[in-house]
Specification:
The chain is of the alpha/beta class. The protein folds into three domains: 3-119, Rossmann fold, CATH 3.40.50; 126-311, Rossmann fold; 317-439, Orthogonal Bundle (Helicase, Ruva Protein, domain 3), CATH 1.10.8.60. The chain contains 19 helices and 16 strands. It has a five-stranded parallel β-sheet with strand order 2-1-3-6-7, sandwiched between helices. It starts with a strand and ends with a helix.
Length: 443
């Protein structure tokens, strides 16, 4: 059974979640503080870490950074309140696998954990990390109808048949890896391997080994020979995500390999010729990093023979429901459901929501809603509470959105009609809630 480290300072909630996960065939170790968690990871290995963002002696992001430094392949999921969602989204670029906002449905936790474990490379040989292209190159990449999407599709079609290095620039969650896969699948290398590498999850001390491989005994922990990403992708494509996270030393090693088209495994004197195409991605301004001396200018020009902008969801509003319908079909297939679509009310809510997590957030939202839907169409009562509220108005007072009736119903449903808890969830006073109940005749 997969082993989960659960870190949560709310003891009753922690025990409740532990019981639920144990019931669903996970082995759970609980910690109520960052200090306890640090002690736990020293004693045993875990397949996944589920931690609250706010802990009494530290924050989840700091703890996550420590854990990922030692165990880069172990997925970390953050649990967060609505007010901290933006922080959690930013944490994804620093190594978090996903986040889940409180309050949440227990089944939602199972979906997020399953996805994280499936995408994790824990204890998986490199040969099994290699993804073969699918017969239909558009199965994952969806062509939108907005101007930004049309331009993106044109650029992908234009650059794919070439061997040019492509730098994909865009916010977290905009689908940069999907763009890279689409380029590979439309290229002359499509019948060979596509290997995606998260540069932010690789400690700088292990980067050379991960990229170029190593020989047994070349360093402590090298218990057998290992093939690196470059050799495994020979003839195909290597996608380096968040390349700006590479250390300066690792940048030099990467540049040398790209220039010479040769690699040397750690501990070996033998050079190996490699024929690979390099695709990279970043959500940072690498030009600014070059100016600041944090990123080598020669490497920047080497990886940026052609650049592509991966648009945020806010830049392609016309595509919102195109993607939502696509994610609904995927969710139906994965969850063995047969939900037909979205109610007009949900469409309106989706169109008003800012989607700070971009396509990743939309996909998670649709999958969760599909799981919870028991009718033909997804209704507003299965959407997270953040879709119905604003944190503050311009004068600092709390204000509900135009869908405040639905927000109230949603909050009451989540709290089993406990009005005090519902008011806390909505971030309004009990008196305000009672006034709203009277206004909408919900008493």
């Amino acid at each position: 059974m997969p082993k989960i480290l659960l870190i949560e300072d709310d003891i009753s909630f922690c025990k409740l979640l532990e019981k639920f996960l144990t019931k669903n065939n996970y082995t759970v170790t609980t910690s109520f503080s960052a200090a306890e968690a640090r002690s736990a990871v020293k004693k045993e290995n875990f397949d996944l870490v589920l931690t609250d963002l706010r802990l009494p002696d530290d924050d989840g992001i700091g703890l996550m950074t420590e854990i990922k430094a030692t165990f880069p392949d172990v997925p970390v999921i953050l649990m967060t309140g609505y007010s901290d969602v933006n922080t959690a989204v930013k944490a994804i670029k620093n190594g978090a696998s996903d986040y889940i906002s409180k309050p949440f449905n227990p089944d939602e936790v199972l979906i997020v954990i399953t996805n994280a474990l499936q995408s994790s490379s824990v204890a998986t040989p490199i040969e099994k990390k290699i993804s073969k292209p699918k017969s239909n190159s558009d199965e994952e990449y969806v062509k939108g109808i907005s101007k930004a999407s049309v331009k993106l599709a044109e650029y992908i079609k234009l650059v794919s048949p070439t061997d040019m290095s492509v730098l994909i620039i865009g916010e977290s969650g905009t689908g940069k890896e999907i763009i890279a896969k689409s380029i590979h699948q439309q290229s002359l290398r499509k019948d060979n391997n596509f290997i995606a590498v998260d540069c932010g999850a690789i400690p700088k001390e292990l980067a050379a080994s991960e990229f170029f491989g190593h020989l047994k005994g070349s360093f402590t922990g090298a218990i057998s020979d290992k093939i690196g990403y470059f050799e495994a992708a020979n003839g195909g494509t290597v996608f380096l995500d968040e390349i700006g996270n590479l250390s300066y030393e690792n940048q030099i090693q990467l540049l040398r390999a790209l220039q010479e088209r040769k690699i040397k495994p750690v501990g070996s004197n033998k050079e190996i010729k490699v024929d690979i195409r390099i695709l990279t991605a970043t959500n940072e301004d690498l030009r600014e990093a070059v100016k600041n001396g944090d990123f080598r200018e020669d490497l920047y020009h080497r990886i940026n023979e052609f650049s592509i902008h991966s648009p945020a969801l806010s830049e392609r509003e016309e595509d919102l429901m195109v993607f939502a319908e696509f994610f609904l079909q995927k969710a139906n297939d994965q969850l063995n459901k047969d939900v037909l679509g979205f109610s007009p009310e949900v469409v309106a809510i989706f169109q008003k929501y800012p989607w700070p997590g971009n396509l990743r957030e939309l996909q998670n939202c649709v999958k969760r809603a599909t799981l919870l839907t028991q009718t033909d169409f997804i209704e507003s009562n299965v959407l997270p509470v953040e879709f119905f509220q604003k944190t503050t108005s311009t004068n600092g007072d709390f204000s509900l959105s135009v869908n405040e009736k639905e927000a109230i119903l949603n909050a009451l449903d989540r709290t089993n009609n406990n009005k005090s808890e519902a008011a806390k969830l909505l971030k309004i006073t009990r008196k305000t809630l009672y006034n709203k109940l009277k206004l909408y005749d919900l008493n």
